Amino acid sequence: MEIKKLVTDLTVYEDRKELPAEWYNLLSIAYESAKKAYAPYSRFYVGAAILLENGEIVTGSNQENCAYPSGLCAERTTAFYASAHYPNVAFKKIAIIAINPQTKLTTPVPPCGACRQVLSEYEQLFKSNIEVLFAAEEGPVYKVNSVGDLLPFSFGADFLPAED
């Protein structure tokens, strides 16, 4: 038997003024996107902003539906829009922010498992890390260097049968 240790570097910005300008801008754009979320059921508003390799910034927010499984998280809304409009352009960075209008969130809210898997697909597709910044409306901001840091045992196309 062998025991292996997984290590993830997490950068913690206690004050948003510490963020590099590019990250501060991307988080601000994600915040504006969160305010546009359609979340009448959960009243939990999430926004995301992806910086593409070509310099474009794509945004999205969570979109709910009264048939709960039919909704979509902000990260996936943004990733799918980016891929549909810029199919051959790698994602460099994603900023995610969550707002709870009833209680001020102060702990950074990471992407859910499904969103981690979707973002992992794009990391694998482009063979390039996607830096992930996540935050709440107030409090510290967390950054990891790749989606793989958030989902170290992701499912990938390599597991599927090869084409004939």
Descriptive key words:
single chain; 6 strands; 4 helices; 164 residues; alpha+beta; 21% strand; six-stranded mixed sheet
A few lines on this structure:
This protein has 164 residues and is of the alpha+beta class.
SSE layout:
Layout (H helix, E strand, L loop, with lengths): L10 E3 L7 H14 L10 E8 L4 E5 L12 H12 L5 E9 L13 H14 L4 E6 L4 E4 L2 H4 L14
Parallel strand pairs: 4-5
Antiparallel strand pairs: 1-6, 2-3, 2-4, 5-6
Molecular structure report:
The protein has 164 residues and is of the alpha+beta class. A 6-stranded mixed beta sheet has the order 1-6-5-4-2-3. A hairpin with a 4-residue loop joins strand 5 and strand 6. The radius of gyration is 16 Å and the shape is globular. The mean pLDDT is 96.
Summarize the helix and strand pattern as letters: EHEEHEHEEH
Helix share, percent: 25-40%
**Mean of pLDDT:** 96
* Largest beta sheet: strand ordering: 1-6-5-4-2-3
Number of beta-strand segments: 6
- Structural class of the secondary structure composition? alpha+beta
Quaternary structure annotation: single chain
Q: Gyration radius, to the nearest Å?
A: 16 Å
Q: Which regions contain 5 or more consecutive residues with pLDDT less than 50?
A: none
Principal-axis shape equals globular
